[in-house]
Design a protein that fits this description.
The chain is about 70% helix and about 0% strand. With about 300 residues, the chain is mainly α. The chain has a two-stranded antiparallel sheet with strand order 1-2. It is rod-shaped. InterPro entries: Myelin_PLP. One of its GO terms (cellular component) is plasma membrane. This is Neuronal membrane glycoprotein M6-b.
Length: about 300
């Protein structure tokens, strides 16, 4: 047993109570505790620390964008499915045409909903990995950081392409809604309502297939006028308006996705600098404590 014990009482105290390393204590408050194994948390602060850690790991911006996207996709697919069904019935019963590709459009709508839903789930997953303490735990290695940056870049490219697609769909819906509005104005005109004149659509023959007979473009029977105006045009106009609103929500959500992925890309890229700063701070604190012990 040594006769002399040169160990100071302060060295037996926890790091947070020591007066030698205040900068290390400050760094430990805002970084992961696994990086500072000697840093101890008081028992009374454990619950609040855990709750704060959980809330800082949630990508709120990405979740808001996902909510907008899911809402827009739901509204668009439901209203377009209903609108396509009404269009098929109108073509069959009013203009005596059968358009097979309208059934294909229904299948495409289901695929669009599934694809956008899968994309939303993957972006949410990337957002969780690049947020808070999860980012510091996952992207420690160089390979993980490169993979994270590549995944963010790939998703940004996909969303950038999808924006052009949805802008094109938005333009088509604007044109379709305008045409249906013109049809509705013809239906509620005085000539049709009071004088029971025929609804003449021959000036819109370019909108119909070439096989359409000209006499079918003049709607004169009361039953056909009622079906065309009340059962199709009135309902379809509302459906296409709602579909346009859904596409607006989708475009806003895609812009939010781009902002979130850009921020996640920057966080993952700068994480290496943050790690180097932590190591440099630890080395400086260790050297400062050693020089104090010498004297």
């Amino acid at each position: 047993m040594n006769k002399y014990n040169f160990q100071r009482p302060e060295m037996e105290m926890p790091l947070q109570s020591s007066n030698y390393n205040p900068s290390r204590e400050t760094l430990g408050r805002y970084s992961e505790y696994s990086l500072h194994s000697s840093y101890k948390i008081r028992a009374g602060d454990a619950a609040s620390t855990n709750s704060v850690a959980c809330t800082t790991r949630i990508p709120y911006a990405t979740l808001i964008a996902a909510l907008l996207c899911c809402t827009g996709i739901g509204v668009f697919c439901f209203t377009m499915y209903r609108g396509v069904t009404l269009s098929a019935l109108m073509m069959d019963q009013v203009f005596h045409l059968y358009i097979g590709w309208l059934e294909t459009v229904k299948t495409i709508l289901v695929l669009i909903a599934a694809g956008m839903g899968a994309l939303t789930l993957m972006i949410i997953f990337v957002g969780f990995l690049a947020t808070g303490a999860t980012r510091r735990r996952i992207y420690k290695a160089w390979r993980n950081r490169v993979g994270g940056r590549i995944s963010c870049a790939v998703f940004m490219g996909i969303i950038y392409i999808l924006q052009f697609f949805w802008i094109f769909v938005f333009g088509l819906l604007i044109v379709s809604t305008f045409i249906l509005t013109v049809f509705w104005k013809m239906c509620v005109s005085t000539q049709v309502q009071d004088y029971h004149q025929c609804i003449d659509l021959t000036q819109f023959n370019f909108l119909f297939p070439q096989s359409t007979r000209i006499e079918y473009l003049k709607i004169c029977e009361i039953r056909e006028i009622k079906f065309f105006c009340r059962d199709f045009v009135e309902k379809s106009e509302f459906m296409f308006m709602m579909a346009t609103f859904g596409v607006i929500l989708i475009l806003i959500s895609l812009v939010h996705y781009l902002m979130c992925l850009s921020a996640n890309y920057a966080h993952i890229r700068d994480h290496e600098k943050f790690e180097e700063l932590q190591e440099l701070q630890l080395l400086q604190d260790t050297d400062f404590a050693t020089s104090k012990e010498r004297f």
